[in-house]
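Dear colleagues,

As part of the handover before I leave the project, I'm documenting each prediction I ran so the next person doesn't have to rerun anything. This entry is a single chain, and its sequence is reproduced below.
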Amino acid sequence: MPTLHEIFSWVCGQQNNWLVGGGELPFCQRCTGLYVGAIPALLLCLYFRPKATRRMLWVHGMLLLLMVPFGYHLVPQTAVIRMLTGQLFAIGLVYYLVLLVFDRWEGWRALTRIEEVVYFLIAGCTLLLSQMAVRWGGREAYTILSLMGVGGLLVYVALVAGSLVLLGEAFWKVLRGRVRQAES
């Protein structure tokens, strides 16, 4: 059976990995943020069900754009910055992927200003908790972070698969409409 290091080697360069509780995490510092950050980001989206308002789209889009200077190493960075940018990217990415997949769900709504503040405060707390777990966690933290990383990878796979299915349905719907139009 392949180890987590082998599995994550397909999606991560595995340089600059964290050592937590005596064990090396199976993903690099930025991917720690990316994969571990996907779980709380998904839970936030499912709990608050934020609709795609101009402000929410803008803020989450900016979180995605952070990866340009940091992901391409245009800015000097430390281990904490690498993980933090991965976490922020995860929040933005999960938000956009969730919007596409759950767009048809009637529970999505515009958040009030207070709900937005709470949403982002909780997101900030998850950033701090993950950083603390990496810095001061023991063997339990290693296990939890590794499992959250696997869960995060599965979240991305499921959301991307759902998005592809929806895009495929839309493509076939448009194609069928054009074929019917051509036949008329």
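Residues 58 and 152 are 23 Å apart (CA to CA). The chain has a mean pLDDT of 91.

All the best with the project,
I.
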